[in-house]
User: Fold this.
Amino acid sequence: MQATKIFRLPYQKSEVFERLKAAQLEAALVWNECMETHRQCRISQTSWLNQTALQKLTKGKYQLHSQSVQLVCQTFLANVDSTKSNRRAGIKNMKYPWRTKKFYPVSWAAQSVKYKDGWIILPMGKGRNPLSFKIDLDFAPGACSLVWNRGFELHIKQEVVLEEKKVTGNKATIDLGEIHHSAATTNSGNGLIVSGRGIRSLKRQRNVALAKFSRKQSKCTKYSKRWKKLQAAKNRFCLRNERQIREYRHQATRQVVEFCKTHDVDTVFIGNPHGVRNKNCGRRHNQRMAQWEYGKDLSYFTHKFRMAGVSVLIGSERGTSSTCPECGHRHKPKGRTWNCPKCSYKKKHRDITGSLNMHLLAFGQKAKYPEQIKYLRPVQLGSSRCADTRPCSLSRAGGNAPSHMQSGIPLRDGACSTPALANTSSTSSEGNQLIPAQSIGVV
Assistant:
């Protein structure tokens, strides 16, 4: 199993920036050729090209490493297969890849990545200088990807060790929410609620700030000096806000996983709230639902539970929050308290009630209401500028670096064993210019 660490590249010399940009332009050309070839096959009703034929078609045409080109082809065919499966399942509005791309992430297979003397070397093909980055890693790097997210990021995969699975007979269910991030219950009578108000507040802050930026930019000529300054400020704010939300989400999911490990849970059922966005409840509520990233929560939970040796089941949670777990009466509660009008099930937490109903839905057995419910909130982030980053320093290439690495971007991760929430700066090798540090996160 693999985890992905994200290294932010906050500073590049102009020639290096252009090389990174050109690499993503080349990857987009590979995607566009695959897309156009597939479209012509559909129009002419001829056989679709398989992986071997598509890789043969694109071989030697682009200024990328051969395996980077092959990975783009494999990703394209995976999208085609996914679309085909969805259309056969009855989702007719799914489209095959059709949009022409200008940029596309560049990927390198694990066997093509080299790490030597603190430098990670990414080949660009025969006769071309490789991309090189100065990064202190405490693990053997796997596959890498060059991604644009309001600036370049290097995503490096790392092999992680899975814990052994235990058969204890204890089950747990998790009800996802927007106000309360997670409500978990076990069949042994334990309950946990993790607040999601911190994430909600950060999203509200982002919405208000983006509205202010938009109002100011609307009064400027596009691409003017003032407009560019506002755009740069908006990018910085959005990146910081994104990292804070991601850190809150990681901390919230980690707390639920630790709760399940504490009570020796061997199987977890997570309700998928898909379809909650289909109901029109007004523009403000619709905005909150559209910004609810429950897909990431499902992904994080699946990844963390697998690392902990816990089996994960994901299914529909339809009707669990509106059904009484005692008598089965259907009732739409108002507020956060569940009061059944037909029986003595009164003054119960609404999200815990939804989690209890999932036990009968997933495991075929009822669970009793927890005698004591533990309330937690994601860890507070302090005053860090980079919510999910470890301290790292950045300086220009030079010194004793190998000659073929002189065009690389040196990036050094700080000597920190955990994702500490700190802000540091370093001095470049040319003068005493301070460069803010912001680099690493975990997905």
